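Intended use. Records like the one below are meant for learning the mapping from a protein sequence to its folded structure. Do not use them to infer anything beyond what is encoded.
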Amino acid sequence: MNNWPRAAMASRAFHETSSGKVEGVMFIDRDYKPPELFAEIQGEAAKDHLRIKVWTRKEIENYLLEPTLIHSYVENRARCSVPYGNVENILSEVIAELADELPVLIADSYQACDRKLALPTAMGRAKHFIQQRMDAGASWSSLVSGKKALSMISGRLQEGWSVQLSPMSLCRHMQLGGVRKPRLHSLRIGSAPQPSGHTSLPGTHQPSGDTIPN
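Structure written out for the chain above:
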C-alpha cells in the first residue's frame, strides 16, 4: 500500500499524455487498517487521476477460500476420489484456527505501527476492529490471512492426498464461467461506466461484470 504515490505519479503522466483518456486503477489489500485511512488515500490519489480500490476481504487470496473451488482442484489431481465434506472440513478447521489467533495478530500489527501502544489497549482495539467488521457482514474467512490459510490447507491436502496447492495454481484451475465464486475475472473497476474513449492503464482494467462478493 505504501507504493501508491508512485502509482499516482504514473497515473498522472498517462492521464496528461493521453489528453485525459487514460487513468490509473490500483488495488490494495484491506489488511487490518481503518476505513478512514483508505478514504484519505483515495482522496489524495484521485487528485492524480488514480482510483484506489480496496479488497473487501483482507487480501486477494481470501477470495480463493472457497470449498467448491478447492475440492474441484483436489479432485483433479488426487489419485483417488476425495469427498467434498473432507475438503470442507479442512477449510473450516484452518479458518477456525486462524480466527483464534486473529486478535493477537491484529494487536501485534497495531503495536508495530505505534511502539508506545500498550498491549491491553492494542488488544481492545483489535477486538473492536473485528466486531466492527463482523457487524458489517464480514466472515472469518474474509478476516484471516488468506495467504496463511492456503498454505495450511496445502499442507493438510499433501498429507492426505499428496496434493499441493498455491494461489497461482488455484487461479490457473479456475474456468471462466465454470466457478461461481470467486469471480475474479468479473471485477468492476468503477461504480460508473467509463466515458467513451476513456481507458485505464494497461493491465489494470478487467471486463466489467459483477463485483467480487464481500
